Amino acid sequence: NTHYGFIQYGGVLYKTTDGGKTKQGGIGAPADERNGSSDSGGEWVTPMALNSKGDVYAAYKKLYKLVNNAWTLISTNLNVSDDIDRMEIDPNEDNNIYLSERDILFKSGDAGANFTTIIYPGGYIYGIEISHNDSNTAWFVSSGGVYKSTNILDPVPTFTNITGNLPSETKLTIKH
Question: Beta strands of the chain (E only): which ranges?
Fold first, then answer.
């Protein structure tokens, strides 16, 4: 019965513990992410994810974790030019976090403290999904189609275009 939701730009985070009948909170965006009255700092749909323990993460230009009803900066070496577009936490291993900004993929193996940049061949990334059975398998939907990696944990993972004969319409999400 516990759910979380942002208003636009990640401006305010709300929580419900009764399945949505009432809302609690009103936790504002991190102060160093706010850009003005019409932009609270993140993307229009600001990426948010929970790990297996229920910890809440949000991606603005940096990665934050909700600790005692306040945002705590997690990423110190994440270098992006714009707001983070997508986020995925490995369902098998909470330390593995993936972020994307446009066509750039970032990977962390230490719960977001440090990120490395991965060369992604498929264009602008619209969705990321990690296998529920194997942390080394991931799928991506992007402007270049649907891609799969079976070695995403490697320092230099490879990607295979598996778009095949799917319709040419843009794909925005993928689920395993």
Answer: 3-6, 12-16, 24-28, 48-50, 56-59, 63-67, 70-73, 86-89, 97-101, 104-108, 116-119, 125-130, 138-142, 145-149, 160-161
Tens digit of each residue's pLDDT (9 = 90 or more) over 129-167: 999 999 999 999 999 999 999 999 999 999 999 999 998
Chain centre to alpha carbon of residue 161: 21
Spatial separation of the C-alpha atoms in residues 123 and 102, rounded to whole Å:
8
Residues 6+ apart with CB under 8 A from 159: 120, 121, 122, 140, 147, 148, 149
Neighbours of 70 (CB within 10 A): 11
- Residue pLDDT, tens place only, 51-89: 999 999 999 999 999 999 899 999 988 888 889 999 999
Q: Report d(CA 15, CA 6) in Å as an integer.
A: 9
User: What number of other Cβ atoms are within 10 A of residue 173's Cβ?
Assistant: 10
For 64, how many CA atoms within 13 A lie in the half-sphere containing its CB?
A: 28
**CA separation for the pair 57, 67 (Å, rounded):** 10
Task: Using the structure block, give the residue that is written with the tokens 């809440």.
Answer: 56
